TrEMBL record:
Allosteric enzyme that catalyzes the rate-limiting step in glycogen catabolism, the phosphorolytic cleavage of glycogen to produce glucose-1-phosphate, and plays a central role in maintaining cellular and organismal glucose homeostasis. It is an enzyme of class 2 (transferase). It catalyses: [(1->4)-alpha-D-glucosyl](n) + phosphate = [(1->4)-alpha-D-glucosyl](n-1) + alpha-D-glucose 1-phosphate. This is Alpha-1,4 glucan phosphorylase. It comes from the Eukaryota. GO terms for cellular component: cytoplasm. GO terms for biological process: glycogen catabolic process. Its EC number is 2.4.1.1. Keywords: Allosteric enzyme, Carbohydrate metabolism, Glycosyltransferase, Pyridoxal phosphate, Transferase. It holds the Pfam family Phosphorylase. GO terms for molecular function: glycogen phosphorylase activity; pyridoxal phosphate binding. Its cofactor is pyridoxal 5'-phosphate.
Length: 927
């Protein structure tokens, strides 16, 4: 085996300062299922921290026993390891410090020997320890530069130094070992106080089974307030979650301190939805302590998997856009970006789906009833958010300026959710906002005896963050949705600008330190809000503020059809946000005047490209606002990008082709293999000989070398069988339908919508049922038994989607109770589909259907989740499926239906097409 040169520290945290690179788009819009690490290189993560000191005094003293480190590659009997001999003063925890450094550097300890020397000098015992290490590929490390960096990292960790110690070049952004020192605190603290604090908090929490058990039991007694001699599974889960969170918070604090010191350009990801799923397993795995917790719990009489099932899903989103946001946060943390996510902390989420008599019924999702141990309420992080009122002119510096006098103010309170990266100490923040009433309003009402009004004010404020996507068919619904959008961006931008002003006073530096990513049009009011803050509050002139705005925003659109673009009625905006309407009008005026110079007086095109739509209902086109003010606009697949250029935003593309790009959506293998399918994860690691694929998914290509291995096939089948058994048990418990594990599990789980064509799937199931019913008994033995599984929610106001659910349940009732069909065909509708259900269904699926009408799916990430779990795809050439087909080959999937360019012609021929006899029979069944 040939040795490779391993660059131990290679900076990935680069923050470009040029206008063209003002956005993180080139690095940020990474398809999260292809995290772009070099395949043969070891990248050591940034700002790795360790609390290595036994005491502050010890770190400040001068030791008489010098640490020595010798590195040798001269052992001919072991050509695959490098010997590292360390001689140092012994102290509690030092071996753990050294092994942690090796782990941080991505090195494997193959074996080790240790000797102790009582005469080491300085009155203390020394040890001489020899570590035989290899790189992540099992090779000896022979590159001189890499060896020197290993030696420096060990010296820095063992003997330390004040403040932060970096390994690598001084220009490297964020790479190195951060050692906490008492010199880190500044201000008026006395030295005694500083040393006392650091003496009490000088090292990280331990993760050995005994320490974990004590932490869990302490949380049972002191956090959950239950007796440690009597507590149930849910209480054990709560204690376990807080124990894991303690370790998250250590890394989280160090991450924030690191980035505050480094002051890099930060990515701010603004999204109305984050479908995070359960946090326990994902956090424990990313922290690298899942197995330690499992062992510790087993000795206490609990199973990690059982306790993980006690956690509910955070109801913060719906569908692919929301889950994409969650995967993006996981990837940003893993790839060491200085990123923040911002969203809303919905009290009830979307809704909990209940099926009664086959119909969908919506009930509030009380996901916060039992608390959320993963969030930290930041009662000191609150911002006022204003609505309604009037705009007046006032004198300012010899001129006039606009002043917004709001009619209503609510408070935005921050709730932080730490997001850990995998294989790194980087832990970033998802900050969610909850709406609370203004203290001033409440106290005025109470003090005047108007208790009813005080309660109404409280309910009115809290409604803003109560429900995800209120029904906007009424004026009140439209107003509430607009309130949600502005509340979210106003609080987020106040937080972002406050953070910037902590370190900077000149807003010309703003584009060099801030990149704002708009996830669809929902956060687009951030553009007008930044202009308002810069002009009205920071007193920048209009042109200077506009130049800043155009450098900081990038826009991801998930829209496929022009008619699906979001519009806000002007009369509603004028009432709720009068100053923002003025700003949008001013932006549009300047933009149209400039546009006339570019394209002339083509009034039809000017009308189409205007931010303001003059029609029966005068409206603001939010997508147009986002495109005009963003430096980058990206679609979410190659097919989607072509639709944007040729259909949805054709006029804008012809004007600004350099703005448009595409970044195909992705999913994280950490959630969709490691967490949801641990058996498959173990199998992959075994056959690849490494766990590096958990960070670099491209390494999965190494399985191709084992494609013909019968042992791998057998193990794969066993993994699939176990997953199908889990799913079958869930189906029986949930619906009472007993299904055969030997049957093909045919799955379609996604949001219920006409273009996703669950209706077509149900009609196909009816046709299959009809064929089986009319078969001779001898022919039925040739039929492959099939269990059809459908799941998803319909929007409350989407009547056709609701009827599709009813049809599905009616067909299931008929088929599942027909003795002639038996186990040859079953149909199951899974209610209340969410991330946790997906983690159960996806690993057990044999076939997954992605049959949207070609040209209607922007990307579609569900197919990726099924595919990476070894499931076959039945799919149309739509969204990301086209790129998947190119990657895996047409022979490895089942293509279905018309292509995108064929759909318009078929629609025109629709009324004249002859209905096939089989379809007519299916329709008669339905009628």
């Amino acid at each position: 085996m040939s040795a490779i040169s391993v660059p131990l520290y290679q900076s990935r945290l680069t923050f470009p300062s040029t206008t063209a690179a003002a956005s993180p788009s080139s690095a940020f819009f990474v398809s999260t299922n292809k995290l772009s690490f070099s395949k043969a290189l070891l990248h050591v993560t940034s700002h790795i921290t360790s609390r290595t000191l036994a005491s502050t005094n010890q770190s400040l003293s001068t030791t008489t026993t010098a640490t020595t480190i010798e590195i040798s590659n001269n052992d001919p009997s072991d050509p695959h390891t490098t010997a590292i001999v360390i001689r140092a003063r012994n102290r509690i925890g030092l071996l753990q410090v050294i092994t942690r450094v090796f782990k941080i550097l991505g090195l494997r300890i193959e074996k080790a020997t240790v000797e102790f020397d009582e005469g080491g000098g300085g009155g203390g015992e020394c040890f001489i320890k020899t570590f035989y290490v290899s790189d992540s590929h099992g090779n000896r490390i022979e590159d001189d530069q890499s060896l020197e960096k290993i030696k420096k990292a060990l010296f820095d960790a063992i003997d330390g130094g004040a403040g932060e110690v970096k390994v690598g070049s001084s220009s490297s952004t964020g790479k190195g070992v951060v050692v906490r020192r008492s010199g880190g605190l500044r201000g008026g603290e006395t030295r005694v106080g500083v040393e006392r604090m650091f003496g009490l908090m000088d090292r990280f929490l331990k993760s050995d089974p005994s320490s974990l058990q004590k932490d869990i039991l302490d949380h049972v007694e002191y956090t959950v307030a239950r007796s440690r001699f009597s507590f149930d599974d849910f209480e054990a889960y709560q204690a376990l979650a807080h124990s894991v969170r303690d370790r998250l918070i250590e890394r989280w604090h160090d991450t924030q301190l690191h980035f505050k010191k480094k002051d890099p350009k930060r990515i701010y990801f603004l999204s109305m939805e984050f479908l995070m799923g359960r946090s326990l397993s994902n956090s424990a795995i990313n922290l690298g302590i899942r197995d330690q917790y499992a062992d510790a719990l087993k000795e206490l009489g609990f199973e990690f998997e059982v306790l993980a099932e006690q956690e509910g899903d955070a109801a913060l989103g719906n569908g692919g856009l929301a889950r994409l946001s969650a995967c993006q946060m996981d990837s940003l943390a893993t790839m060491d970006y200085p990123a923040w996510g911002y969203g809303l902390r919905y009290q009830y989420g979307l809704f909990r789906q209940v099926i009664l008599d086959g119909y969908q019924h919506e009930q509030p999702d009380y996901w916060l009833n039992f608390g959320n141990p993963w969030e930290i309420e930041r009662v000191h992080v609150t911002y006022p958010v204003k609505f309604y009122g009037t705009v007046e002119d006032e004198n300012f510096n010899g001129g006039k300026r606009k002043v917004w006098l709001p009619g209503e103010t609510v408070e935005a309170v921050a709730y932080d959710n730490p997001i850990p990266g995998h294989g790194t100490r980087n832990t970033i923040t998802l900050r969610l906002w909850a709406a609370k009433p203004s203290d001033q309003i409440d106290m005025e009402s109470y003090n005047t005896g108007d208790y009813i009004n005080a309660v109404v004010n409280r309910q009115r404020a809290e409604t803003i963050s109560s429900v995800l996507y209120p029904d906007d068919r009424s004026y009140q619904g439209k107003e509430l949705r607009l309130k949600q959008q502005y509340f979210f961006v106003s609080a987020s931008l106040q937080d972002i600008i406050r953070r910037f002003k902590d370190s900077h006073s000149n807003f010309d530096d703003f584009p060099e330190k801030v990149a704002l990513q708009l996830n669809d049009t929902h956060p687009s009011f951030a553009i007008a809000e930044v202009m308002r803050v810069l002009v009205d509050e920071e007193h920048l002139d209009w042109n200077r503020a506009w130049d800043i705005v155009c450098k900081i925003f990038s826009f991801t659109t998930h829209t496929v059809l022009p008619e699906g673009l979001e519009k806000v009625p002007v009369d509603l905006l004028e009432s709720l946000l009068p100053r923002h309407l003025q700003i949008i009008y001013d932006i549009n005026f300047d933009y149209i005047e400039e546009l006339k110079k570019r394209i002339g007086l083509d009034y039809d095109r000017l009308s189409r490209m205007s931010i303001v739509e003059d029609g029966a209902i005068k409206s603001i086109r939010m997508a147009n606002l986002a495109i005009v003010c963003s430096h980058t606009v990206n679609g979410v697949s190659r097919v989607h990008s072509e639709l944007l250029k040729t259909r949805v935003f054709k006029d804008f593309y012809e004007l600004w082709p350099h703005k448009f790009d595409y970044k195909t959506n992705g999913v994280t293998q950490r959630r969709w293999i490691v967490v949801s399918n641990p058996s498959l994860s173990a199998l992959i690691s075994k056959w690849l000989g490494t766990e590096a694929w958990i960070r670099d998914v491209d390494l999965l290509a190494g399985l191709q070398e084992q494609a013909a291995n019968a042992d791998l096939h057998e193990e794969w089948r066993m993994v699939r069988k176990v997953n199908k058994m889990r799913l079958a048990e869930y189906i029986e418990a949930m619906s009472g339908v007993k299904v055969s594990v030997s049957a093909m599990f045919d799955v379609q789980i996604k949001r219920i919508h006409e273009y996703k064509r669950q209706l077509l799937n149900v009609l196909g199931i009816i046709h299959r049922y009809d064929c089986i019913k009319n078969m001779e008994k001898s022919d039925r033995t040739k039929v492959v038994p099939r269990v059809c599984i459908i799941g998803g929610k319909a929007a409350p106001g989407y009547e056709i989607a609701r009827k599709i659910i009813k049809l599905c349940n009616a067909v299931a009732e008929k088929i599942n109770n027909d003795p002639d069909v038996g186990d040859l065909l079953k149909l199951v509708f899974i209610p209340d589909y969410n991330v946790s259900v997906a983690e159960l269904v996806i690993p057990g699926a044999d076939l997954s259907q992605h049959i949207s009408t070609a040209g209607h799916e922007a990307s579609g990430t569900g197919s990726m989740k099924f595919l990476m779990n070894g499931c076959l795809l039945l799919a149309t050439e739509d969204g990301s499926t086209v790129e998947i087909m190119e990657e895996i080959g047409k022979d490895n999937m089942f293509l279905f239906g018309a292509k995108m360019h064929e759909v318009p012609a078929l629609r025109e021929k629709g009324p004249t097409l002859k209905v096939p006899l089989q379809f007519a029979r299916v329709v008669r069944y339905v009628m």
